[in-house]
Amino acid sequence: MISQLAGLNWVSVLVAFAAYFLLGALWFTLFFSKQYRISLGRENETLPNKPIFIVGPALCSLVITIASALLIYALDISSFSEAWKFSLLVGVGYLFANTVNIAINPNIPRPILYGIISGTYHLVGILIVSIILVTMK
């Protein structure tokens, strides 16, 4: 599968990554800012804006995008229908489930709310990534 790296359309990877990252920025600061802060038990606080909170998610989104591109190419996914099915499998089976699993710890006061907000972001994000990657393949 790693041999697929050379054959990737890297422009599509960068476009998909940018869309995923931008979605995250909007999701957590504009669309669901209040709910996200509530899930963290910080509803009356301003969340910190340190570089790690921008660079870290960006790197993670890039890794997810590259891994998705590798799978899409290796599995020869080439239609919107297949991209949708791939997104549901990866989005629910890995990203959403893993996000909820991470949220279930003593440091997250509202783990289910956090899991729904963050997991849904990843599900929508991977759908956008998959559609861009397949469209530009």
TrEMBL record:
Ribosomal protein among keywords: no
Transmembrane segments annotated in the record for this chain: 7-32, 52-74, 86-106, 112-134
Keywords carried by this UniProt record: Membrane, Transmembrane, Transmembrane helix
A Pfam family reported for this protein in Swiss-Prot or TrEMBL: DUF1761
Coiled coil: none
InterPro entries, sorted: DUF1761
Protein name per its UniProtKB record: DUF1761 family protein
Native organism: Chitinophaga tropicalis
